Amino acid sequence: MTMERRALVRPLAIRSAGDGPTIAGYAAVFGSAADIGGQFREIIAPGAFQGTIAGDVRALIDHDSGRVIGRTTAGTLRLIEDDVGLAVEIDLPDTQDGRDLATLIARGDISGMSFGFIVTRQLWDETGDIPVRTIQAVDLREVSAVAFPAYDDTSLALRSLESARTAAGQARADHNRKRAEARIAERKAAAEQRFRKI
């Protein structure tokens, strides 16, 4: 399984709490079709994060694992799956990265969230002009405040499409092979019955 990243341009809010600033926003929104490199559309289904948000997830800046700004197990990152999508709250640390991020969000320089994930359950629909991938469950690895909220890992997502097509082709081939074997077995049984005059 390959880790993929998706980004969302949606307003981030910053508010002051007793211990310092907290940022809040959405890393993902349900039911909104996103274009993935012009190759397919992708929709995140409600419930996709339910099995994973209780795990050890980190909050980063620009997907940089050297710039951690929160963590679920530390209680500095809170994730909630609501009717809209994956809601995120991060208590920013009193570090250079935390202070800089608060300033950049307040100025509007950073305006998006993203998340890094591994798809664990998906459904492909290739009946239309453009294939549609519905992500039903993920293994969430991280959420990030990002400067360039764009679908930068489309090549990884495209590998998922190719894998799905390969698996579907293999399934069709297996089904056709089993049907052919069943027909051969039926013919052999019929021939043996005629031979034995049953």
TrEMBL record:
Question: Has UniProt tagged this entry with the keyword Hydrolase?
Answer: yes
GO-annotated biological processes: proteolysis
Does the record carry Zinc as a key word?
A: no
Q: Which residues form the Prohead serine protease domain?
A: 16-162
Superkingdom in the source lineage:
Bacteria
Task: Give TM regions.
Answer: none
Name the InterPro entries for this protein: Peptidase_S78_dom, Prohead_protease
**Name of this chain's protein:** Prohead serine protease domain-containing protein
Q: Which organism is it from?
A: Sphingobium wenxiniae (strain DSM 21828 / CGMCC 1.7748 / JZ-1)
